[in-house]
Structure formats: structure tokens, C-alpha cells
Amino acid sequence: MMFSLNQAPRGYLVLALLSLDILLLTPELPWAGFPPTHWVALEAPLIIGLLALLPPAPWRRWLAGLVALFALTIVFGAAGDALMQTMQGRSLNLYVDIKLVPILIELIVANLGLPLAIGGLLIVGLALFALGLVLTGLLQGFHARNTPRGLALLLIVVGGVGLARIDTLQDDDASGWMAKIGHPAVSFITFEWQRALQTREAMATFGRRLYQDDHAYAKPGGQSLPGLANTDVILGFIESYGVAAIERAPFKTEIQPRLEVIQNQLAAAGLSVVTGRVTAATLGGQSWLNHATFASGLPITSQLRFELMINSPHSTLIDDFKASGHDTIAIMPGITRDWPEGSLYGYDEIHTADSMGYRGPSMGWASMPDQFTWQRVEDYVRARHDGPTFTELATLSSHAPWSPVIDMVDDWSTIADGEIFDHWQGAGKDYASLWHDTEAMRRNYGPAIDYSLQAAFGFAERYLGNHELGNEGSGNEGFGKERLGDDGSGEDRTTEHTLMMILGDHQAAPAIIGASPGKDVPLHIISDDPQLLTGFLDHGFRPGMFPPGPDAAIPMQAMRGLLHQIYADVTPGEKVTTSGSGS
Q1: Which residues are registered as beta bridge partners of 391?
Q2: At what angle are helices 438-464 and 252-268 packed, to 10 degrees?
Q3: Does domain 221-467+495-568 have CATH number 3.40.50.620?
Q4: What is the mean pLDDT of residues 328-349?
Q5: Is the separation of the CB atoms in 413 and 475 below 8 Å?
Q6: Helix ranges restricted to H, 226-385
């Protein structure tokens, strides 16, 4: 046995009391810093006192193990809460976040590689196991036969009466020594239990909403968008692109001039652009929830909601465009494994990392740079489809930890299979270490967003603009304009114009862009036909590349309805509001 029952029982009791107190105070660390708000967790003396009254029976070892497991569970919850606060600006919700564990493990493997990920998880696991063993041994080192009954009863009274009365006493004396006593573990458990009940009810309400949505476009098969019947539509998500990149220092000093340059370049290419402000469903991550929110017209704020939605008959924008006669294509370079959700969405074509033919080097966390991804929109959509298309893509170059930041290739026609990016081989190979260097990530964030904007709007300028034909290597034939057919016969496309929506999927983590950033992201809408954009101006969008203020923000789940208002004339003259944007 690690600890002898005959050795210094009171020493074991004191060490166990201190250890348990420290572990049970961890739920306060994420928001209180160190030291925590309280110094004494009343749960600790109560538990130690109860154990001190029990005899040294064989079952005591299992009881001590359960107490240690309870303490480590509290520590795990506190660590998870700290992670959520830092990365997504919200507290942990065990009811829905438990489903993120497999995704978190995949993220760790993707960032560190399988050997390092396994090694790191083993080290953490062994450390927790060792901590549990030590605490279990300490809890076994004292019992009813070697601890004064009076001491045990005193600890029980202090803990039990304190738990029952501390809140009332602190109301009368919130300062001094009384303010240093609390019940963090009980508060944590109570909070999570109450929120679990609230979340369960909210999920039931959301489930009913899925099947009782009375919008015409919500029914299986969706609803057509006749105003876009002969228009190519592109919906591109730029990773981590929030309004903070435009409005907060130091990022705005780089991004604002870039938006001005892009605005002038689009105008010179004969393209019109309007920009709105959209409130995303999440902050700091979980991009797919925002994609689903935009597509479904529902607030998909958790993995559980996503699974309910994707497995329900509720339709999405993909169904709407199929009903409008569009071929629907997904270009997802971030998907590196099977993606059954893509089939559930119902795309006609799905292109993922393994099927996009990229032969260049990986770019840190990203499997390929954004410029290559946008070129594949040209290769897989424009060059292969004569009729109208709806293309959804999600880019990667501006994904945390934003390394490496590369330069644009001037001549898009040389991109081909991506081997032109070979001279960046090895760049950003240390990206995994940046997760521990917040300042380095902050320095890279602005340049990474800048690159992603150049790639997206460089595509628009090159392939949507009305540049004159015939310039060697220019590639400015104009997306949706007359071009040679796939067989070189000179057959024209049947589409007339293009509508391109460039949307940030979510803000970056608060640790990068600062506290209380909100969830607003820019939405830029570009077209070679300015008439396609006029409807957005009636709903708070403004001409140019700069988003309006917070008062004009539209919930992301309202965007599907807005598209139907503008292009299907569902509710003529009625503006989109934030009503119904909650759970």
C-alpha cells in the first residue's frame, strides 16, 4: 500500500484537506485568476470529516477512490470551462459539449500529429491517474480509529453548517474573512444541473421547431428562388473573419486599407459590392454550426442541434437552389475524412481535400492555400457546368494558428495542381507550437485575414469581372458570360450573371481579438449585375466593402429568409428583424 495507516494520521488528514480544498477551488480559476475568489471550499472539510468518522474497512479504499474521482471530475470541468472561455467566449455546457470530445481529439491529432497527440494524452492521463492515486492514499491514511472524534465532528459542522448558511452570512458581510469561504464545487454542479435542465427543454423546443417550421421553404424539397434562376451563386466562408478584424486594433490598420483596395479593384472590373453585418451562431470556432445556421434558417448553436437538424426532413438552401434548377457543389478543403453530412445536405457534387488534386505542400494547419481552393471553383464549377450552379466553399488559410502567411500567386493560370506553392515547402511547420504563443498568433492573424481576402476577391475580379477578352493569361472571361463549352464547340453558358457571397464564419477567439468581441461577421455580396444587390440595401447593407454598425446586424439564421424575401418575393416589403433569433 502506498501509505501506511499507522503513519502520522493527522498529517494525512491535513494534507488530504489541503489537496481536496485546492482541487475543489479550480472552478473559480477561469474567471477569477489566481488566487481564486475563495480560499476555503466548504465541501472539503465536510468530506474529510465524514471520512474521519468511518472505520478502516476494505470498502473504504473504493470510497476514497470515488472521492478522488469526484475531485478530478471537478478539475476536468474547470479546465473545460477555462478552454471554452478562452476560445469561444462562453462557459462550458456539459449537456451539449460532451459531443465535442471526439472532435477535440481529432483537432489535437491534426495539430500535433498522431505520435505527439498520443504521447500528450498519455502524459495528461498518467498525471491525472497519479494525482488520483496520491489523493486516494491520503484519504485512506486517517479513519475513525486514529482520528479524534471531536476533530471529525468539528470538520463536519464547519463544512455542513457553512454550506447551509454561507450564502446568507455573505449577504450580511460580503467583505473580510467571510468572503474567502465558498462552495465552488456545489455551485459548479448546481449550475451545470440547472443549465442541463434548461438546455434539455430548449432542445425539445428546438426539436419541435424543426418539424413545425411554418416557412414554405422549410418543408422537404425547399422552395425555389426564381430571382436567381439563371444566376450562378457562390457562398464562400472565410475562416475566423469577424468584424473585429476591421474594427479593432491592431488588425484594422492592415484590413481597412485592404478593403479599400478591393473596393476600387472590383469597381474597375465592373463589379458591384454591398456589405452587411451578420451575427454568427458561435464565437471562436465550430464553423460547421454557422454553415448550418446560414443554410437552414435555424439557430444551430450546438453539435446536438446540428445533429437534430441534419437528420431531420427540414430543408436547407441547398434544397432551395436545387428547386431553382441549380447544380449544387460543395468544395471543402478542410474535410479530410468521410463526410456523411455532405450527403445528408444533398449536394450534387462534393469535393474534399482528398479529391481536389492538390500536389503542393501543406500550409501549416491548412491542407492547401485559399488561392488554390478558389481556383478549384473555376476548375470544377465554371469549366464543367453550362447551367446555373450553387457553390459553397469554406477556406482554410485564415484558420488558427494563422501560420504560415504566404503571398498571392500573380498569375492564376499557373496554379494548376498546386506545385507552384512548393517554394513554401516547410513554411509554418512549427504551427503546432504557436498554440502556446498567443502573441505570435495575434501578429499572424491580420496578415492571414488579409491573404484570405486577396484570394477571395482576386477570384471575383478575375472570373466575374468584365475585362476585355483576349488578354493572354488574364483569364478574365467573366463568370457567367459567353465562353467555350467543355468540348471547345463554342457553346454558351445559359447563365446570365453571378452572385457571390463572402461571409466570415465566426469571430476569432477572444484570446486573440480581445474581450467581449461579440459574434458579428461581415457579409460581402458581389455581382456583375447591380440590380441583384438592390434588395440588400433595403435591409441594412451598405454599398462598398465596409460593414454597417451593430444596430444593423442580422442574425445568421435570418439570412435564408432574407434571400427568399429578395429573390422569391415571399414577404414583399417586410424587413428582416431579430425576432425569433433565440433558442
Answers
A1: 234, 329
A2: 0
A3: no
A4: 88
A5: yes
A6: 244-247, 252-268, 287-296, 303-310, 317-323, 340-345, 370-377
